[in-house]
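Fresh eyes needed here. Have a critical look at this protein's tokenised backbone.
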Amino acid sequence: MKFFILLVFVFGTLSVLINGMPPISKDYNTHCRCLQVESRIIPPDSLMSIKLVPQGPHCPETEVIAGLTSGEKICLNPRSAWVKKLVQFILSKQLHHQGGAPPKNQA
């Protein structure tokens, strides 16, 4: 009987190792965050933050989540022309900002 329990335990462990386990962290999400997306243009003074969530195993689409000054968070349609321009602007601004910073010394 002990041999049977040990055998079941070993096969269970092998099954988990072979199939893999998803990473465990607070940021790991197994599904898309955006169930509905907005295509309407949001005035720039209403935008407080923009978060880009790249596509991955959790979601086949890139997600653009806007934080509004009202505290509300909405998902923007990444296929809308104005959202594409906004994303390009943010990415170019980040790239320019990173390019202007002096390189960090590595120890």
